[in-house]
Amino acid sequence: MKLKMGVDIGGLTLKNPVMTASGTFGYGEEYSDYLDLNRLGAIIVKGLSLEPRDGNQPPRIIETASGMLNAVGLQNVGVKAFIDDKLPCLRGIDSAIIANIFGETIEDYVRVAEILNDAEGIAALEVNISCPNVKRGGITFGSDPALAGEVTRAVKGVSRFPVIVKLTPNVTDITQIARAVEAAGADALSLINTITGMSVDIEKRVSHLENVTGGLSGPAIKPVALRMVWEVVNAVSIPVIGVGGIMSARDALEFLIVGAKAVQVGTANFLNPGVTADIIDDMERYMSEKGIDDINDLIGTLKI
Amino acid sequence: MKPDTSATVFSQRETTRGHFLMVLKASASFRKSLPGQFVMVRMTDSNAPFLSRPFSIYSVRSRGGDTFVEILYKVVGKGTEVFSRLKEGDAMNVLGPLGRGFDVPSICKKIVLIAGGVGIAPLSFLAERCEKETSGAEIICYMGAGSSEALAGLDRIEGICSVVKISTDDGSRGHSGPVTELFGHDMDLYADNDSRIYSCGPTQMLRSLHKLLKDQPVACQVSLEERMACGIGACLGCVVKTKSDGLVRVCKEGPVFDINSADFSEHNG
User: Fold this and answer.
1) Which residues form the domain of B188?
2) Rounded to whole angstroms, how far apart are CA atoms A136 and A104?
3) What CATH code is carried by the domain that includes residue B65?
4) Mean pLDDT of the residues in chain B
5) What is the predicted pLDDT for the residue at B264?
6) To bridge B190 with a disulfide, which of A34, B90, B134, B195 should be the other Cys (CB 3.0-4.6 Å)?
7) Whole-structure pTM over 0.90, yes or no?
8) Is residue B104 part of a domain?
């Protein structure tokens, strides 16, 4: 009996629920020596802005207990170079390619979304309204329900693709933001982005990061991510994608059981560039052992 | 398609105080390793330390169909402290060989190595290769360390080089002072097209070397070190400033750079 691994996310059909998280997978090509990219449900590329960005000055990363902080600062080649130089390499791949976009103004978001309308080989947009690393950037949009709704409505208004909005955990009540984004027309939500954190060098009495603060990722944030996904699943009716500290199939299954329709694997790619294939294999093994034929029969089955 | 990253600790011993030589039995694919390339190493069954650690390759050897990757390292933090307690048979993951290595010249009169501390590791691997592949080369090493006890890798490099000159910060062996000072005394011997200089060590040392070589025509490559998460160009954590190309990734565009392309201005590093 062949397992049914496909999931539908707001008009986007994936052959399995495992995606790679934006900012941890480059533009895909970096991983092609280590992983058969065709195995993935989706590849979400590094966040794209209207113009290329250099990002923050180093040092940009520091290890923490069960995780890491990063302050890369959304370094990227810009949307035009992505379409011309990076996207062609991804076209032959049998995985959904999702473009993650961000901007500093609503006009920026709209312009990037418009430019991507002319690109071939993209399946959906993921809108980053939550990156905590850039001083003037996403944090304003993602932490205010009205602004989050406004940027969602603006992108949705111009894009020909399904629109996933990625939420920040650095808010008092994530369900408020989720509802506002749903009301503004988002096709799906992904959460969580990194949790803002710090780490100090006590010899020099400086932050380990040039940017002072950074985004915490890795297994340290998984319980928080799981709780927030569960809260949001209960607050909205659009599909939710679970992200945060997933290292194994066991972690991914936890997110599906609380109601996520798919998952994104991020920091784990840094430790093992082939980890996503292992996660898909192990998920299938779990389903076979439990006699579950269709992954959709597992989603949202948490017993309370 | 997926490379075999599984490895086991074949042996490990403390060579000099606080310095360890770990030999990993790894996949045959490591035989293609070039001097200056590095590996990302982590323990298979533990997430503490969480991230893999980058190490320059000290040497790669084949014996009876098996491949051994050698790493020479100093205990400087949590990761290396945990690694130093690993024993024969412990399961490891080793990704590599990664990055751009040193240019190994096919012909050259003088190969000059300038090592600071455990920076000797990639230079020793380079010396092994030059001994085999560079015709007519005399290999000379300037080796600096904090004290005589910290001269890790000395025996091996002495076995390859025609001359090894030593300096220590505390004067306990050889010249008393920085290794760049010792090299500076001899610099006129190498200031021409017949010589090539290679260096690896602390940023301050590379900065001094850069100053010394500023107006010299001699070619010099340096290996840089940075914290990194992935080692394959994705995390963008290991970037350094360069003069012409802005921020570049140590793991992908490096770790070996021309000394003149790296930005060694005081505010950097």
Assistant:
1) 110-223
2) 7
3) 2.40.30.10
4) 94
5) 81
6) B195
7) yes
8) no
Q: Residues B130, B155: one domain? A: yes
Residue A55 touches chain B, beta carbons under 8 Å: yes
Contacts of A68 (CB under 8 A, 6+ apart): A61, A62, A216, A217, A218, A267, A270, B50, B51, B229
With pLDDT > 70 as the criterion, what percentage of chain B qualifies? 98
Residues of B in contact with A272 (CB under 8 A): 5, 93
How many domains is chain B built from? 3
Report pLDDT for B66.
Answer: 97
- Asked if the C-beta of A62 comes within 8 angstroms of chain B's C-beta atoms, the answer is yes
For the question of an ipTM over 0.90, the answer is yes
Q: What are phi and psi of A259, to 5 degrees?
A: 125, 0
**CB under 8 Å to A185, separation ≥6 — which residues?**
A152, A153, A156, A163
> Is there a single domain that holds both residue B144 and residue B90?
no
Q: Residue B165 maps to which CATH number?
A: 3.40.50.80
Do B37 and B117 lie in one domain? The reply is: no
Q: Are residues B136 and B77 in the same domain?
A: no
Q: Quick one: pLDDT at residue B265?
A: 72
Can you give the CATH number for the domain in which B248 is found? 2.10.240.10
CB-nearest to A75 from B226, B232, B236 is B236
Q: Which CATH superfamily is domain A7-55+73-196+217-297 in?
A: Aldolase class I (3.20.20.70)
Q: Which two tokens stand for residue B47?
A: 């997430």
Sequence-ordered strand ranges (E) for B75-108: 91-98
Name residues whose C-beta falls within 8 Å of residue A47's C-beta, 6 or more positions apart in sequence: A22, A23, A74, A76, A100, A101, A102, A128, A131
Enumerate the residues of chain A whose CB falls inside 8 A of the CB of residue B229: 61, 68, 70, 267, 270
Residue B154: pLDDT band by 50, 70, 90 thresholds? Answer: very high
> What does the domain layout of chain A look like in residue ranges?
7-55+73-196+217-297
Q: Is residue A266 within 8 Å of A237, Cβ to Cβ? A: no
pLDDT digits (tens, 9 = 90+) for A81-137: 999 999 999 989 999 999 999 998 899 999 999 999 999 999 999 999 974 434 444
Verify that B58 and B135 share a domain, yes or no: no
Same domain, B39 and B115: no
Angle between helices A174-183 and A145-158 (to 10 degrees): 30
Looking at the fold, whether B242 and B152 belong to one and the same domain comes out as no
- Given an 8 Å threshold on Cβ–Cβ distance, is A247 in contact with B47? yes
Tens of pLDDT, residue by residue over B160-172, are 999 999 999 999 9
Instruction: Tell me the average pLDDT across B23-47.
Output: 96
C-alpha distances in Å from residue A175, one per residue of A229, A233, B24, B53: 9, 9, 49, 38
Same domain? B261 vs B240:
yes
Query: Do the chains contact at B229 and A247, CB–CB below 8 Å?
Result: no
Q: Is A37 on the interface with B (CB under 8 A)?
A: no
The Cβ of residue B144 has, within 10 Å, a number of other Cβ atoms equal to: 29
